[in-house]
Here is the input.
Amino acid sequence: MANAFKNAGLAATGTSLTDAYTAGSGVTATVIGLTCANISSTNPILVTIKFFDASANATFSIVKDAQVFLGGALVAVGGDQKLVLETGDKIKIISNTAASVDTIVSVMEQS
Here is the structure.
């Protein structure tokens, strides 16, 4: 199995639930970092991060309505916490404010 470190960026997410990262076909990915930054002029914004489990066809909250203050960031995954995604699994982001969140998902993909 080959291992590759990758980043996925998502700019200016707003009030629609948006895919930030999807594990591709034949890929198992370990999320080693997930950061959401408030890029708006709203203080605070509320950010929800969801995990879609493709094999169960179910969605679960990682963080729900977390406050991210002006100029601040939310680190939802990092340090000792990891998240494993299998083929088709997704990380999704939504905010209560239009065009307010930049997201970076760092993963190690195994294929």
The first strand starts at residue 3 and ends at 13. The chain has a mean pLDDT of 97.
